[in-house]
Design goal:
By secondary structure, the chain is of the alpha/beta class. The chain is built from 11 helices and 9 strands. Strands 1, 2, 3, 4, 5, 6, 7, 8 and 9 form a 9-stranded mixed β-sheet that branches. Helix 1 packs parallel to helix 2, helix 5 packs parallel to helix 10 and helix 9 runs antiparallel to helix 10. It comes from Cellulosimicrobium arenosum.
Length: 291
């Protein structure tokens, strides 16, 4: 086996034929070329396998793994991370687009920041199903480099900065977390755990194009539960309450000093749980009424 590359781009996919080619071409066109692309196919039933094999044949940096059974999107993300060999990991969705310098500048940000910087991310723009830019995220002031975990947690949660999950991580640090959890909002959970472990670095260039379209699971309400954990009973899953518990657990599982743990738990409560109490109330209503 060849030496491990500096970067692994982990791209889990299930029935992603519509945008997968565009996404793969944007990864393959990165100016930082010393990478591997881990394609983890969750038993797709459309043309995804054919697209993956075509790109793997054209680019030796691609490792294509096809699973015989669909175990859900959550499992597939965690499996792709497990398969990664790089010193750093970039999580990728099968419908987003990277501008060519994404990896180059994020690798540089991690190198310049040293071990205390555990995640680097560029600024983000939103594109629609046709690739048209529809929004500039106001993330130029979103700095996760505060001195303490509770300050970093407060900033990320207050800004609802879930898109940072698609940044570039130090692999060894990411693997000390519990991974993506079986709940909606698992992106902010893993970001909270990473904030407990070190600082984040913002790259001021707009290099990430995050696609939002009607057919993605994050736009489909309660169906997100089954995407993350197939077979779950949506009515009785209490997803918002579970998310609150996972965020608190992100802190308590991180072995912070007692004083910092208390402050970080308070940051989760005041910046996420309390402002979203209606979601928990909705969980209860759905369990009682079925709606």
């Amino acid at each position: 086996m060849s030496a491990a590359p500096p970067v692994s781009v982990c791209l889990p996919v299930y029935n992603g034929e519509r945008y997968l080619t565009e996404t793969l071409l944007s990864v393959r066109a990165q100016t930082f070329g010393d990478l591997e692309i881990v394609l983890s196919d969750n038993a797709s039933t459309d043309a995804t396998a054919e697209i993956c094999r075509e790109h793997a044949a054209a680019d030796p940096r691609i490792r294509y793994v096809r699973h015989e059974m669909n175990r859900g999107g959550l499992w597939n993300f965690n499996e792709a991370i497990r398969l990664a060999r790089g010193e750093t990991v970039k999580l990728a969705a099968a419908d987003d687009v990277l501008r060519p310098r994404f990896l180059e500048v994020c690798v540089a940000a991690l190198d310049e920041g040293g071990p205390q910087v555990v995640l680097a991310y560029p600024r983000t723009q939103i594109i629609d199903g046709e690739g048209t830019i529809t929004e500039d995220l106001h993330d130029e002031g979103l700095r996760g480099d505060r001195a303490t975990p509770h300050e970093r947690i407060a900033e990320v949660l207050r800004a609802q900065a879930a898109h940072l999950v698609f940044g570039l991580y130090r692999t060894d640090v990411l693997r000390t977390t519990r991974g993506l959890r079986p709940t909606i909002g698992n992106d902010v959970v893993v970001l909270t755990e990473m904030a407990c472990r070190g600082r984040f670095a913002l790259v001021p260039e707009q290099l990430f194009l995050q696609r939002r379209h009607a057919t993605q699971f994050s736009a489909q309400g309660a169906r997100q539960v089954q995407f993350h954990a197939p077979g779950k009973n949506v009515r009785f899953d209490f997803p918002h309450a579970r998310l609150a518990g996972e965020l608190w657990s992100a802190v308590t599982s991180s072995r912070l000093r007692a004083e910092e743990s208390v402050r970080s738990l308070a940051a989760v409560t005041t910046n996420w749980v309390l402002p979203r109490w209606r979601g928990v109330a909705g969980d209860v209503r759905r369990a009682v009424t079925g709606r």
